[in-house]
Write a structure and sequence with these properties.
Bound molecules: zinc ion
Shape: globular
Distance between the termini: 22 Å
Strand content: under 5%
Number of helices: 9
Radius of gyration: 17 Å
Order of helices and strands: HHHHHHHHH
Length: about 240
Amino acid sequence: MEPVLLVVSVSAAAAAAAALGVLPLIGRETPPATWLGWANALAAGMMLASAFALADIRISPQTWPFAFGAVAAIVFVHATRTLSQTEELRLNLLGEASPEYGYEVLLVASLHSAAEGVAIGAAMATSAPFGIFVATALALHNIPEGTVLAAVFRSRGVPIGSTIALAVVSNLGQILMAVTTFAIVTASPAVLPWTFGFAVGALAYLVMGDLLPESYDQIGPKSIAFAVILALWAFALLHAVLLP
Ligand SMILES: [Zn+2]
């Protein structure tokens, strides 16, 4: 398969995985808040593990460009949130009826998934097996993230079919950024350490800033620690299977 087609395929499969996260909400409009806490903590663990894999010194040996890339990501994510006036937005409000809230949550989810696309594109540019591994990990993490997004939309009365479509649409940025990053890095390999740094900085920022804070209220620190460790273990298992 053409390398670019492979990038499109794996990132599209990862985006589509979000639809699986909607399945627990069939026939249920407002799930318990604890569901969201567990889903966010599992997604956070998988994202942290993906960031850890990209920060591996054997893959990213140029530490300064990596560090600058990571700082640039934090500035970039912060700037996009400030410009879109979603910096203070709470992402897990169930039953929030204001018309603009749905659009704001969708925008933040799209920016979030675009950052993950950078991770997939950079990993694919390193090697196809490593790229498929990172894309599979992020596909698995898109499932609980799909559950959280679906819970917000279902609690607003959005029908299940539209909710599935929204969960997948919120991940289209993942495909776009995976292909763009892959093309840029393939054309100019010197930017790879910057790109890895950017992906790791963005993933870490989103975990710490978006996924975990609300789950502290929903399930508390002990459950979060358990869920994150469970996700890390699943990630290690995936590594053993895909990259023996
Ligand atoms: Zn994510």
